[in-house]
Specification:
This protein is of the alpha+beta class. It is about 40% helix and about 15% strand. The protein has 6 helices and 5 strands. Helix 1 packs parallel to helix 5. It is globular, with a radius of gyration of 18 Å.
Length: about 170
């Protein structure tokens, strides 16, 4: 794994996640999904007091891992990365008009490789250029969706300041 910003148990989990991504693409995951999901969740619980507070007990099945309500990201700092250690901060869209939530990441390379690999597997005949009804990630660096779409190849971007840039869609 290149540029792994993690150490210790987190680095070992990152390696397992990457192996799972690529093994699953080949039809041979190196371990059961449930085992990996529970180990990730348990690590996150030990390092994130907000997530710990959501759980009465450690789940025994991956289906019992609680979903984190989006509203919590608006109200509390959820996650295991300190803002001072973050390489990127992705924010919720703010479509509700409420304060935007934020999620800090040490790096995006593992997410980027996984998203790209699965995109190529699931959409093998994707267009060579996409018309994205999103803001350009150069202008909206805090948009995880724009970041992900940019990974898939060249795109034209057709949102500006939250509104549709109608003139940019004219061909």
């Amino acid at each position: 794994m290149s540029n792994n910003p993690w150490t210790g148990e987190a680095a070992a989990l990152a390696k397992r996640i990457e192996a799972f991504i690529y093994g699953s693409l080949e039809g041979e995951p190196p371990e059961p999904f449930e085992e990996l999901a529970l180990d990730i969740h348990n690590w996150q619980r030990r390092h994130d007091p907000v997530l710990e507070a959501l759980c009465d007990q450690a789940p025994e099945r991956w289906q019992d891992i609680p979903a984190v309500p989006v509203d919590l990201f608006r109200r509390l700092r959820v996650g295991t990365v300190d803002p001072a250690d973050a390489a990127v901060a992705f924010r919720t869209s703010g479509t509700t008009g409420a304060r935007r939530g934020v999620h800090y990441l040490r790096a995006t390379d593992l997410y980027d490789r996984g998203a790209t690999a699965w995109f190529r597997q699931c959409v093998p005949d994707a267009p060579t250029v996409a018309a994205a009804l999103l803001e350009d990630p150069a202008q909206a660096a805090d948009s995880s969706l724009s970041n992900m779409v940019a990974l898939f190849g060249p795109a034209t971007w057709h949102l500006e300041s939250g509104g549709l840039a109608r003139t940019s869609l004219v061909m």
